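Fold this sequence, please.
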Amino acid sequence: MEKTSKINLLRTLSEQQRYHDLLHMSIGIEELAILPLQALAHANLGNDIEAKEFYLQTLAIHNKLDIDALVDLAAVNIVMKQVTKAVALLEDILKEQPQHSLALARLGYCYLLQDDSQTALKLYQQSVQINPNRLSLLHNLIPLYIKQSKLDDATTSLAMAKGRLATIAKELPDSVWLRYSQQHNMFQLNIWVVNGNFSYAERWLRLKEWREDYINNEEII
């Protein structure tokens, strides 16, 4: 597998929050772009010492990194609660590549952390328009639509997310598919509640409870 393909695979694992798999698969790969991904994985796993070590290694060679790796570095800044640094880095990146979908999304997340949901929404919308097939982008956009009572937009984005999940389902581990599916269920439930469709929400919750009881009884038998 070519180095670029390996790095892209590691980025996919990061998006799917499979950080242990990312660290395991990164063993033996000699590529500068891997450093921010390793820092990001350790930071998300709460391995503070290792995260700082890889972060400092990344800073030492940051001027040799390509745009995508710098976007990964910005993600490390975010997880390490260095939001101001992340914003500055992402804004510089977008000056050079204004259509970088992930940079737009991560800048949107920074604004969300700063309680500027309007700017965050605009950035997520731009990001999804460029790359509508990225589930993580849709999963960040849908709650913003719900929060701002843009329920038609939330429903449309949820349909897109469900369609994308169905397309890639065979490529995902069961645990990842289940997590995404549960997120979709919660999005739908929130849309119903905000829209005042409590009967739909109650019916879905009763059905969910019945299914769980059925599965538990089957396991006992």
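The mean pLDDT is 90. The chain is about 80% helix and 0% strand.
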